[in-house]
Amino acid sequence: MITRRAVLAAGAALAAPNIARAQNLVKLKAGMVTGIDQIGLPIALERGFFEKWGLDVDIARPYATGVDALNALQAGESNIVQVGVPMIGAVLRGMDLVALANYSGNATTRGSDATMALIARADSGIAKGDLASLKGKKIAASFGTINHLYILALIEKGGLTPNDVTLVNTPPPDMTVALLAKGIDAFVGWDPWPVVALKDVPGAVEIVRGGGVISYIGYNVGLRPWVAANGPVIEKFLAALSEGDQWMRKEPKRAAQVATRWIPGLKQDVAEASMEFNIQQADRRLSANNFRALWSAQERLHRLGFIKDTFDVNRHFEPKHILKVMADNPALFSDLPPIPADVAIGPGFVFKP
User: Fold this and answer.
1) Would strands 116-120 and 186-190 be described as parallel, antiparallel, or unpaired?
2) Is 7's pLDDT higher than 60?
3) Residues 324, 293 contacting (CB under 8 angstroms)
């Protein structure tokens, strides 16, 4: 565990020294993945927002993928984690997960994938912007994660099928090494790994960045029994995170500095370049768009044969806590575009495809 006290001892100064320290802070264990889009969590810790809201939060070591984060959740290492596509496979295997808010995504639009990119070697034969040129290529992705969903969408957009390429299951931190070693022709990944590859792999080419081919899914997720028993704590947690997100949107360079302390080996210039895209999706709110994002991810994975079944997304969302935070603390979201009326949700909302 990377604890609040350990961060303070490492010199991460809090920005709110005048906050009165509560005598009985509620302890909470949270988990994250090594992605720039996850940084709202440690920002809330380092800036003192958790303490402000009455919480003592410990953050587990950053995991390589959401699959690892969910394994830790199931093992009791965390009470709540940040995860996206791996939630689908976990639910289908019987894990009773509940999504509470976004850690990354967009409540105002359907397409949101600015933090994703496809990077290729200079000699790969893959042409910038030409997705049909992926045919016959070896491409790294982390199976069962958002970057797997992203490459499947790019393949379809290029008029191809998954059988037209060779997908190689690779953890994001290993993708740059695989590209350097010419073990793959290209990879898809979330930031900072595409930015790292463009700096560290001679001649590496960004074939596509974002593109609106998928709706990003990234949720704060807990196990149903814990969620049912901890409503007030969840609301404090989401309020603190929302405050951290707003600070990140206003202070992207300083937020990038926080990221360098939480993602091993991340350099400031890479973090700053990645943060430019991250703040476009730093929207903790939920709307019908986020329900649709989970539904559409399932639909694609099922249609292409990667999952054998689907589930009712309504059963695995509990929006009432973030809706309360939004209603009680509108200033935390005042710098974001308003959620369009046709996708705004309220108590009792039921998503219908």
Assistant:
1) antiparallel
2) no
3) no
What would the pLDDT profile of 266-312 be if each residue is shown by its tens digit? 999 999 999 999 999 999 999 999 999 999 999 999 999 999 999 99
Instruction: Determine contact, residues 275/255, Cβ cutoff 8 Å.
Output: yes
Q: Which amino acid is at 347?
A: P
The answer to whether residues 73 and 226 touch, using CB atoms and an 8 Å cutoff, is no
Buried b / exposed e along 20-54 (16+ C-beta atoms within 10 A): eeeeeebebbbbbbbbbbbbbbbbbbbbbbbbbbb
Spatial distance between the Cα atoms of 30 and 48, rounded to a whole number of angstroms: 15
Residues linked to residue 116 through DSSP beta bridges, in sequence order: 190
Q: How many Å from the N-terminal Cα to the C-terminal Cα in the chain?
A: 40
| pLDDT tens digits, one per residue of 80-138 | 999 999 999 999 999 999 999 999 999 999 878 999 999 999 999 999 999 999 999 99
Residue 350 CB coordination number (10 Å): 10
Token pair belonging to 339: 């959620």
d(CA 276, CA 35): 13
pLDDT of residue 10: 42
3-state secondary structure the chain: CECHHHHHHCCCCCCCCCCCCCCCCEEEEEECECCHHHCHHHHHHHCCHHHHCCEEEEECCCECCHHHHHHHHHCCCCCEEEECCHHHHHHHCCCCEEEEEECCCCCCCCCECCCEEEEECCCCCCCCCCHHHHCCCEEEECCCCHHHHHHHHHHHHCCCCHHHCEEEECCHHHHHHHHHCCCCCEEEEECCHHHHHHHHCCCCEEEEECCCCCECCCEEEEEHHHHHHCHHHHHHHHHHHHHHHHHHHHCHHHHHHHHHHHCCCCCHHHHHHHHHHHCCCCCCCCCHHHHHHHHHHHHHHHHCCCCCCCCCHHHHECCHHHHHHHHHCHHHHCCCCCCCCCCCCCCCCCCCC
Cβ-proximal residues to 49 (8 Å cutoff; 6+ apart), any chain: 16, 43, 240, 241, 243, 244, 247
